[in-house]
Design a protein that fits this description.
By secondary structure, the chain is of the alpha+beta class. The protein is about 45% helix and about 15% strand. The protein folds into 2 domains: about 260 residues, no CATH class; about 210 residues, no CATH class. The longest helix is centred in the middle third of the chain and has 31 residues.
């Protein structure tokens, strides 16, 4: 039910925003941020979200073709008009492709969108003092086409309305109102189609082997709703344009601007495990093949018995203070990680796998790159790396990336997945299999860039002594985490729930495991932190995974 409502909201936002001069990209980012705030993100898998986005664009494209079918047929019969549309499309392509490749973060940057909403509102207000001209598409000049095309290029910025800027530019070039609108939306055909092609390309790059949670039926409903709402929005806009009411939409974007900024300044809920979304969707919180974790997540979860009301009030005040400090620290760390540039050669060749996560793939050098953080420097280890806010008390590094995205990234760079380790009923151990994965760590210390194999930070405590420490000699293999089905038949990726990324003890949930037997019992842990070699806590670390043939 929640998925249907989400699809409906996104489709309506796309259908309205694509054609009304209020910016579909800006409103889609706001809707997506609201879903995250309420803990019910529409799609946990990036390729699945791209598939939805493509179908919504197909619906918008169909709306233009239906409403302007007669105009389009006339244009196809006139070579000059075809060339004018092509010329006006060039600026958007020249600006849009570099932004899509090098600055995908802009699509969800709410402070930027808030400012762009203001720009859209100002442009719409200009229509109050822009008199209607007498030009038509047949009589417009090449200069007019390039001015409108440049306006469309500016609208690549999320929050700047494509239809609003191009219509205003058309009116500035002395086109009739209806002609300005018609040219604007005919000009949108190659842009919408082109953005769909880019999304298809991105979808293939981030394709996941896991079955999506959004059914094909819901995707088709989204496309149909986008088309129908788009047609209604086009008819509405054309009617208001005839009456000179285009500036009315400025009031809406002026309201959306402070709302978007407020949303940007408000932190999302602590939902690292996606549990709110799972609860809303009716997904059990404990896998059928694992025991619930009874360890308190925080000292705050184990409150002593309170003696009186004053003690309770004091405890609650202290709890709120600690939570506020943790929230501020978390926001600072997220901002620091998003500002960090990967410490690798040729970072410009890295392709972001997901704009909301610090993970990239390098197709040429076949490597996966992500940003992590040092969270442990002393003591025994069960993991080299875990997902943030999971097993940081027994892991050297933590990473703010969903495990299934790491799995997907390894598949993208042609790493072959094997099988997790197995233990038979007779106690016979079968090690994990899969392509060998080299893990290299890069960091800065005292202004100097340093690098080393991940093994150098791990002490083989079982096979060496304090007086002569030896780094671990084993390597990692791409075993891939196990999956399980809940009572409703839905498939779950174990690593997404356990947070186990790169193991030092054998776990069926680890994405990478060592191909030797290594106990996870506290008394038998084999590996420990090589403290002398590990930089200070909270040091940002670039983690590079490279498949080894």
């Amino acid at each position: 039910m929640f998925e249907f409502l989400e699809i409906l909201i996104v489709a309506v936002a796309q259908g309205i925003g694509e054609f009304l001069p209020i910016s579909s990209s800006g409103h889609n980012a706001v809707v997506n941020a609201l879903f995250e705030r309420f803990g019910v993100p529409l799609a946990r898998d990036n390729s699945e979200f791209l598939k939805l986005n493509i179908l919504l664009h197909v619906g918008s494209l169909a709306a233009v073709l239906i409403v302007f079918r007669q105009r389009i047929m006339e244009m196809l019969a006139d070579e000059r008009r075809i060339l004018i549309v092509c010329a006006a499309t060039v600026p958007a392509v020249a600006v849009g492709l570099p932004i899509h490749q090098w600055a995908p973060w802009m699509e969800n940057c709410l402070p930027l969108i808030s400012g762009c909403f203001i720009v859209t509102g100002i442009l719409l207000l200009l229509t109050l003092k822009t008199p209607e001209g007498g030009k038509t598409v047949l009589t417009m000049t090449w200069k007019d086409a390039m001015i409108i095309g440049c306006a469309q290029a500016v609208a690549i910025l999320p929050g700047v309305s494509r239809s609003g800027t191009t219509i205003v530019a058309g009116l500035f070039c002395k086109l009739k109102r209806e002609e300005a609108a018609a040219f604007s939306f005919i000009l949108s055909i190659p842009v919408i189609a082109g953005s769909g092609v880019l999304e298809i390309r991105s979808m293939f790059k981030t394709a996941s082997a896991e079955k999506g949670t959004i059914s094909d039926g819901l995707l088709m409903i989204g496309m149909l709703v986008s088309c129908v709402v788009g047609i209604a929005a086009l008819v509405w806009l054309l009617d208001w344009l005839k009456k000179g009411k285009l500036w009315y939409f400025a009031l809406w974007v002026f309201v959306m601007s402070p709302f978007t900024l407020m949303l940007a300044l408000t932190s999302p809920p602590d939902n690292a495990d996606g549990k709110n979304a799972d609860i809303m969707r009716g997904v059990p919180q404990t896998p059928a093949n694992s025991a619930p974790d009874e360890t308190p997540k925080s000292p705050l979860d184990a409150k002593p018995e309170l003696q009186d009301t004053d003690d309770a009030a004091a405890m609650e005040a202290e709890r709120e203070r600690i939570l506020a400090e943790e929230k501020t620290k978390e926001e600072t760390m997220i901002a620091e990680e998003h500002a960090a540039v990967p410490l690798v050669e040729n970072p410009d060749k890295l392709i972001p796998l997901n704009p909301q996560h610090r993970i990239w793939v390098d197709i040429e050098q076949k490597r996966v790159v992500m940003i992590g953080r040092v969270v442990l420097r002393e003591g025994l280890l069960e993991l080299l790396a875990c997902r943030v806010r999971t097993k940081e008390h027994e892991s050297l590094l933590s990473v703010r990336v969903e495990p299934h995205l790491i799995h997907t990234a390894l598949l993208v760079v042609n790493a072959r997945q094997g099988e997790p380790m197995k233990v038979s009923k007779d106690g016979e151990f079968t090690p994990a299999t899969g392509d060998k994965i080299s893990i290299t760590l890069h960091w800065q210390e005292n202004g100097e860039k340093k690098s080393c194999p991940a093994q150098d930070w791990v002490w083989d405590a079982a096979n060496s002594g304090e007086d002569a420490k030896k780094p671990m000699s084993s390597y990692w293999v791409f075993s891939g985490s196990r999956e399980y089905q809940d009572e409703e038949g839905q498939t779950h990726y174990v690593a997404d729930e356990s947070g186990e990324l790169f193991g030092l003890s054998n776990f069926i949930g680890s994405i990478l495991d060592i191909p030797i037997q290594s106990s996870s019992e506290n008394a038998k842990l084999q590996f420990a932190c090589f403290t002398e070699r590990i930089p200070p806590l909270d040091t940002l670390v670039t983690i590079v995974l490279t498949p080894v043939p």
